[in-house]
Amino acid sequence: MSMLTLSYALLLYVATGVLVVGLSLKLRSYIKTPAPLKIPTTPAPTTVAGVGWRMAREAVLFESLFKSSKWTWLFGWAFHVALLLVVLRHLRYFQEPVWLPVVLVQPLGTIAGIAMVAALGALWARRWLVDRVRYISTPSDHLMLALLLAIGLSGLGMRFVVHTDIVAVKGFILGLLRFDWQALPADPLLLAHLALVVLLMIIFPISKLLHAPGMFFSPTRNQADNAREVRHISAWAAALDKRP
Amino acid sequence: MATAAFETPKLKSYPVIPLVQVGAMSHLKPFVAGAPLQKALGFPEQLVEDWQAKAIAKMGELLGKYRSLQVYMDACVHCGACSDKCHYFLGTGDPKNMPVARQDLMRKIYRRYFTFAGKYFPKLVGAVDLTREVLDEWYSYFNQCSECRRCSVFCPYGIDTAEVTMAAREIMDSIGLGQKYSNEIIGKVHRIGNNLGIPGPALENTLEGLEEDTKDETGIDVKFPLDVKGAEVMLITPSADFFSEPHVESLIGYAKVFHAAGISWTLSSHASEAGNFGMFIGNYEQMRKISMRVREAALELGVKRIVVGECGHAWRVAYSFWNTLIGPFDFLDPRYPVPQHICEFTDDLIQRGAIRFDKDANDGRIITFHDSCNVARASRMGDLPGGQFVIPRRIITSVANHFHDMASHTIREDTFCCGGGGGLLTDDLLELRVKGAMPRMEALKDVVDEHGVNFMATICAICKAQFTKVLPYYGFDMSMVGGVHQLVSKAIRLGDK
Prior knowledge:
Shape of chain B: globular
Number of strands of chain A: 0
Number of helices of chain A: 12
Oligomer: heterodimer
Structural class of chain A: mainly alpha
Largest sheet of chain A: none
CATH superfamily of chain A: Transmembrane di-heme cytochromes, Chain C
Shape of chain A: globular
CATH class of chain A: Mainly Alpha
Distance between the termini of chain B: 56 Å
Largest sheet of chain B: 4 strands, parallel
Strand content of chain B: under 5%
Order of helices and strands of chain A: HHHHHHHHHHHH
């Protein structure tokens, strides 16, 4: 096996490990940290089922963002939906045989790739054009968009400009999953694409990408408005009640 | 100095998002709490020697105690959805009054001391050391947030700047940098029982005076009972209702409602305050200790129900937190919600036809309603979500003939803070209060011009005091603001019951 294949195999294993362990530690800290007071942003659902519906609308439709700013919603929502379709399209590299839904999503995935890059471009433009957003943007905010754009562009490049041997790529990825390592094609665009994805996976648990799991733990959104009906008390707050 | 000259914003006919003006409000900060005030609350008397290490340690403690803080420090993506939502930003143009930038004052410290990226690549993620300069910025800008939660409505992750502000104030108190206005008031509650520092005998005198005034006005013996054991209802109301205009008009309204409904009630000298500034400074123990007076008084007087008067953040603490802080309320009548808002109480009587009104009595008034931020976004009334918007309006339209809402993006959960909430109702922050009221004043001007509105009803003691002060800056009459029960008081039928 070539040095190249070996190092990419290793990189992808490490990145997956960092992503899984890092995210698990973060999730554990979110779960372990109590929410001592009832702070749903009202009007809020009064039942758990209602909260589920509210969270679903937030996660799928970005309801609050829509209320806030139509342009940001348009670009942000388009980016996330496109990203989802692109990821689904990529699932074909991880399965043999390929699931029917993944087969069906293939043509959509290509269009989504273009839409994703366009939406990222628009989101980046906001960071320069809107003075308030320019003020709050840090270097990492710009670099995050650059990273995602570079991943999207290198992917589209392989789709439309310089093709790579995708059968071999699939062999490499299935090999990783089955611990039966196969050679990775040495195309520069492919290597760049994979290296950038590795970087994205590694920074996920230590960056603002934590907004994805974070939103499900946000007490203003995931609490039911039933403070009068149900006594809500955390362990450290209950300890105060026991003091003389 | 606090009273330095400043310019009142011009009201525009449509809302305009200001351009960023860096440092526009960096000069403003409230007076710092002196040693005796700090000591009374168990806080260090002045900035401690090793304040930096202590502050970081406190932040670590709070990150472990409040999931909100931990998640909100991590989750922000700087999307800017909140950037044009804060009334203080809209009124001042200072970018650090954008909710995201206010949070970032803490987030950049969080990143530096608690995250991998901030420890090893601080410049990349905007992480900085906690220096004296940063602390001064904290003191300035975390005292320019009224904890109104408007930003949390619009954030895609529900990030609530109020949670961050509360944590920052808690950290600052813990290293000896307290805010004078809030901490002085909390001390008074502990010492005397209410924010204004009215002792029991003075309160008794005042209530007797109100009985006489109401008798003169109506010819009827409407009682204002104090410390009556065995009463059905204990009323907990902001102490401003006892002394301030227009607040007292609502207190008279509550008394008339109780009288007309024939329900026995009492005030308590021990718990003569609904307000709870412990929330403003983010201190759970203080908030609990202040609330505990209510539980003690309810047990002592043996009442069956607790009703809360017109006050915004007080209703948040009562509705959302009391059950947690001082519950369970198994000693009260389970047929009624605990606590119950005075508007729920009155509305219920109206719906049942138990009290009646001469609506014409309010015909001189063309009314609009200002949703108080903490009632709108941090509590509820009635059984259905949004009851906090329906019930007060239903009361107003039951007691008066002329009502017009303000623009839809300025009411209900989108309401603008009055500009004086969250422990900022102090003259050393007057510039901020006037400028922060601008979005509400703009919406008010619209209905004044279009419908001839001459009265803005509200159900919060702070809103009432704030508007009384700032309305004149915008060319309005200060008596334009008043309580919902002020309108009830005017129209309620007492005699023929």
